[in-house]
Amino acid sequence: MPRCKLQSMVRHVVVWWAVALLAPGVAWSQEPATREEADRQRREEQAKEVKPFEPTGLKKAMDFVENRAIFLLDREGFHPKLGSLTTGSGFAYGLGFRDRDLFSNKGALEIWAAGSIKRYWATEARLTFPRLANNHLHLEAWGSHRDYPQENFFGLGPDSNRDDRSDYAIKTNHFGGRAGVRPFARYLLVGGGMEYLQPTLGAGQNDSFPDVPEVFPPSEVPGVNSRSDFVRSDAFLEVDYREPLYARKGGWYRVDFSHYDDRTTDQFTFNRLDADVRQFFGFLAGRRVIATRLFVSTSDTEAGQTMPFFFMPTLGGNDTLRGFREYRFRAPHAILAQVEYRWEIWSAFDGALFYDAGKVANERGDLNFKDLEKDYGIGFRFNTDNGVVFRVDAAFGSSDGKHLYIVVGGVF
Amino acid sequence: MGSTCTSWLAAFSRALFAGGRRLGPLARRGTLVGIAASLAVATAISSRSASPRFYPDDPLWTDNDRLEDVKAVPIDDTNGYDFVVNTFSEPGERRDVRALNVNTVDEVPDSSWFTNRIGRNSMSVADIVKGPDRVERVSLTGWKVSGGKTTGVQPGFRMTDPQGQIYQIEVDPPSNPELASGAEIIGTAFYHAMGYNVVDVYLAEVDRDALVIAEGATIRDPLNGRRRSMKKFDLDNVFNRAARLPNGHYRVLASRFATGTPLGNFRYYGRRPDDPNDLVAHEHRRELRGARVFGAWLNHDDSRGINSLDMLETTNRRTWIKHYMFDFGSILGSGTIFSQRHRSGNEYIFEQKPGWLTMATLGLYVRPWATIDYPDVPRSVGRLEYERFDAVKWKPEYPNPAFENMRPDDAFWAARIVSKFSDEAIRGIVAKAAYSDRAATDFVTKAIIERRNKVVAAWINQVCPVDSATLSADGTLSFTNAAVDAKAATAPERYELAWFRFDNATDQRTPVGGAMTVSSGSARAPEGLLAGDFVGVSVTARHPQQPGWATPSTFFFRRASGNWTLVGVERGK
């Protein structure tokens, strides 16, 4: 910078300073005489700096998430369908359409189609009337198509071999309806329904494993080479007094009796009874919960009839025996006991230690607590009062090795 | 104006130095020496010309924050944004500084935020109970349903009275009849008497079958957020989630819409950039800092930005923003649609240390609040207790910048207000909630009284609670002890006084006389003190159970017409 220019600047600064200080008349005239005047001057200065409110990027993002994105999942009309289609399907995504104010808000229609990362597909239309007769009557009807291309099969019975893993594909059409009545208490629901089922088996699509008939003779896998339509009629009783739905206390019990009528070959008619009892014991303000579950499934057939393998209860996977692969055990009868110790880490985030034990049985007489398959593990869950949104469970201690599950949804 | 001044100075500078160049070196040196001498003198003058500590109109009791015209847009923060910002960052300024909006006697002047009521003036029990209500009661006869409710978790809708005034109608959850409406009635009356702006709320009874939906009534569809015509089933959706009275009607809360244009919420930090009247960062406002004490007392764990309301009002053709506290449906034992959670008031929603501890120990570490044995009370009370309540450790749902900045002097200010609520006033406010079960009324009253005692004892004693100081013309100092008056402490062993003469221009204190000890609230000023225009005295007290009393409170008096007027108060550092 040229010297003369620098000198000029210094001079100006000095003179500014001197004048500001030596001109008391100027300075005193701006000095407020009262507090009120001082405040008024501050406001006048502030008024010069007023600018419109500018939301930050975070605020814009949060506004979008809370005002729009959350609506996307639960919105009326078209919406994304996210989650899982069945145990072992992998994460699924698709598109749905819903209308929940049909018939003056009495009915709801939901139609969706989704595919999973393991090429499972499903589509469903469901019409529901949940609050008829002053909340005493629940009606629903549905039609769906499910295409599960790589379902595990390890053989029937408790002694099935892990190395015998094979797979099969099953496509099923469902058409049905159900009615439920809450006769006197909100927590009691009794009802029944009918469903028409059209299952079709095919070769498994997982090239890493052989198809079922390549490993097991058809005589050991009832229904594997047949094609039947079924009418399923069922009656159920459900008691639900959990508080809240992701329970800190209370219980959920359900007994379901189903009769499957083979309408095509008259070979596979059977009855199946499922009983599921879940009890929750909360302590320390409900921030610790012991959650227990006992599930029993049994079936019977008339003379000359058999139960198809794909309708048999199964154990193994993220919601039953977590130390075993999906559908690791399968037989006409099954028993499962689960216990979880859940502890709240933060609001909406729980830890869980779990223990699963269960077995399948070829004979009802073997339904007992002897020779159970077992596992244990630890998990973490993001939850709301209405249920688990997302969980990670790591299972150990089984004869099947360690298993890690990352699942949308809860266990029980 | 500014540019004119700048031009004048620039011209003067050029002229001065142009003249200098025409002088010889000696003369120039002489000029510079002269300037330097002048600067030295000017510096001395300048120190005398700095703002005085006390202006002639101090203390101001009205902050005229409606002077500048406001053109503002709504700031509508969402639940998630408010939570994230306050939990995972530190918005605003965290600084141990005296509240910036107090007047010179350490009080909050009336403003668009706050109006001194019970803290400065005596209020009758009837006035306290009445709160902001314009009428004694409202009857919904002739009113029409005019729209859906747009915010909050409590089910409800809007109604318009025959005069066109809009009210928000809210119902109580079936699991806890009278819960949220009772809390709202109680909270509104308390916060109004404290001094905050609140909307008036009324209890009323609704016959569901008699409701008429007005033509043109709309609702934002709860399922997709789109606005549409309101239907009968929208009311069904509300009343399906409502507690029903034995006569088939519903008890509802009717909240009168505030006057003006809604501008969203205020924040407990920063200033509104579009409001020239908003001079003080909110985290440094006394009434927002002190709201922590009130929140603890009434378990207002929802004390957060999104439960506030800014309204643009017009007075004398000038627009200004009025700041409201609202939504008290989640105070005391109410969680609005369920009983308050056990965590409420005891821990933030997300707090690192206890969370990591709980995770690492697989739950063997137990948070203290999880062991609180809440009393068995009517469902209308929710979850409330007072025995394990710790006023100092109380917390809202997530960090609040103003609460974080609360200092002992802020707490003293608030605790003194709390202490003004008599048992009778509390009883009257709770009775206004009209609980159908007498046991509920009794328990809530008892809980508020017990919590009041704890709050006052915890927060009024953190500074020397000497108050209401006066200095008579003859030099007799009189004062009270707010803690003793509130029965939050016994009298001290002694008070220690340090007198000084005060120079208002330089802010200098000159001690006069030695330390003085008195045993009561009266003392004589030392000889020779009263000669000046300003005098002061620092007071501490010795009490074995109250170490906070050793933190001085200092009082400044100004001579006016032969009498001494209290012009300044400092509490603490």
Count of domain modules of chain A: 2
Global structural class of chain A: alpha+beta
Amount of helix of chain A: 10-25%
The global form of chain A is elongated
Oligomer: heterodimer
- The pLDDT mean of chain A sits at 90
CATH architecture label of the largest domain in chain A? Beta Barrel
- SS elements, strand count of chain B: 19
- Number of DSSP strands of chain A? 18
Account of the protein in words:
The complex is a heterodimer of chains A (412) and B (573). With 412 residues, chain A is α+β, with helices and mostly antiparallel strands. Chain A has 2 domains: 3-48, no CATH class; 136-407, Porin. Helix content of chain A is 17%, strand content 48%. Chain A is built from 7 helices and 18 strands. Chain A has helices at residues 3-22, 24-30, 35-48, 57-74, 102-105, 132-135, 212-215; strands at residues 77-84, 91-101, 107-116, 121-131, 137-153, 166-181, 188-203, 230-240, 250-262, 270-283, 288-301, 314-315, 329-330, 333-346, 349-361, 373-384, 387-396, 403-407. The longest helix of chain A is centred in the N-terminal third of the chain and has 20 residues, at 3-22. The termini of chain A are far apart. The model of chain A is unreliable at 18-29 (pLDDT under 50). Chain B has 573 residues and is an alpha+beta fold. Chain B has 3 domains: 79-120 and 266-459, no CATH class; 128-262, no CATH class; 466-571, Immunoglobulin-like, CATH 2.60.40. In chain B, the strands form 4 sheets. Chain B has a 7-stranded mixed beta sheet. In chain B, α8 runs antiparallel to α13. Classes of the chains: A alpha+beta (412), B alpha+beta (573).
